[in-house]
Design brief:
single chain, 290 residues, alpha/beta, eight-stranded parallel barrel, 12 strands
Length: 290
C-alpha cells in the first residue's frame, strides 16, 4: 500500500496534488531582504513551500577547498569565508519564520550536518530535507529520524544500493524520496525521469522529483510519471551572482510551472474510460451505428 506523508496541513502522496517547492537555497546571497523578496515572489507563483539550506561551513567544507580564493560580492576571499557569509543565523531565520507564517507559505531547510539539525529544531520545522550530497551520511540521517519529523531524501550522485541502504536505515514511514541528478544545469540526456517509476515500483513511500534542468517541460513530465513533489531552484533573476542561479527558475517561469503542473494533474484523469456529455453532439452527428 502506497503511504503518504503530511507537511503542515498538506497530505502528500499519489492521491493528492503535487507539492511544489521553490528552492531558494543560497540564491539570496546572504541578504535577508533578498530572501524575503524571494519568499514573497514564490508565494505569488502558487508554490506550496520555500526551502533554504543550513550548514556549518567549518564541518561541511572539505579541508582542501577551504583556502581556495574566489571573487565574490564581498571581494576576493577564501571559499570557507564565502560559505560563512552565505549562512543565515538565528536572527535571520526568526524573521524568515515570521515572514513565511504571515504569508501562509510553508518553509523548511536542507540540513547538511548534525549541528544544523540542533539549530533548526529551535524553529519547530515542518520537515527536513536531506541533500543528495549527504545521502550516505548515516549519522546525520539517524539524527534527523530521531526528531520524528518527516524526511525528504534527495538521491542525486547515488547508486540504487546507496539509496536502499539509507532508506533501510530510516524506514519508509514519514519519508519521501526525490529522484534527482546533481548537475547544474542538468543535460536532458541525464535527467532519467523513468527513475521516478523505478522508485515508485520499489518503495511504498511518496516519490518526488528535484530538478536542475533548464526549462519547465521535463518537470511537468515528472508529475505525469507519478512525482507527487516537485522542487526547482528559484531566483529573482538568473543573471544574479551565484553558482545556482543559472539552473534556477525566475518568478514568471515558476508561475507557468505551477500552472502546467495543475493542468497536467487535471488532464491525467482517473484512467476509467467514459463517454462525456461534451461528446454527445459529436456522437449523434458523426457516428453512423450507435
Amino acid at each position: 500500500m502506497v503511504q503518504e506523508i503530511r507537511i503542515s496541513n498538506r497530505k502528500i502522496g499519489s492521491a493528492y496534488p503535487a507539492y511544489v517547492i521553490a528552492e531558494i537555497g543560497i540564491n539570496h546571497n546572504g541578504d535577508l531582504d533578498i530572501a524575503k523578496e524571494m519568499v514573497m515572489a514564490a508565494k505569488e507563483t502558487g508554490a506550496d513551500a520555500v526551502k533554504f539550506q543550513k550548514r556549518t561551513p567549518d564541518l561541511c567544507i572539505p579541508e582542501d577547498q577551504r583556502a581556495i580564493m574566489r571573487e565574490t560580492p564581498w571581494g576576493y576571499i577564501s571559499y570557507l569565508e564565502y560559505r560563512k557569509r552565505m549562512e543565515f543565523g538565528r536572527k535571520e531565520y526568526r524573521e524568515i519564520d515570521r515572514f513565511c507564517r504571515d504569508l501562509n507559505i510553508d518553509w523548511f531547510v536542507s540540513v547538511w550536518d548534525e549541528p544544523s539539525v540542533d539549530f533548526m529544531e529551535e524553529f519547530d520545522p515542518l520537515c527536513y530535507k536531506l541533500p543528495s550530497a549527504s545521502l550516505t551520511d548515516h549519522a546525520l540521517l539517524k539524527k534527523i529520524r530521531n526528531t520524528g519529523r518527516p524526511i525528504i531524501l534527495s538521491t542525486g550522485m547515488s547508486t540504487l544500493e546507496q539509496i536502499e541502504e539509507s532508506v533501510n536505515l530510516v524506514g519508509q514511514e514519514n519519508l519521501a524520496i526525490m529522484h534527482s541528478t546533481s548537475a547544474y544545469p542538468c543535460d536532458p540526456l541525464e535527467l532519467n525521469l523513468k527513475m521516478i517509476e523505478t522508485l515508485r515500483n520499489h518503495y511504498t513511500c511518496p516519490i518526488g522529483y528535484s530538478g536542475h534542468e533548464v526549462g519547465l517541460i521535463t518537470s511537468v513530465v515528472a508529475v505525469a510519471l507519478g512525482a507527487c513533489m516537485v522542487e526547482r531552484h528559484f531566483t529573482l533573476d538568473r543573471a544574479m551572482w551565484g553558482s545556482d542561479q543559472s539552473a534556477s527558475v525566475e518568478p514568471g517561469g515558476f508561475r507557468k510551472l505551477v500552472k502546467y503542473i495543475r493542468v497536467t494533474e487535471m488532464a491525467l484523469g482517473d484512467g476509467m474510460k467514459r463517454v462525456y456529455e461534451s461528446e454527445q453532439s459529436s456522437l449523434k452527428k458523426l457516428r453512423k451505428y450507435l
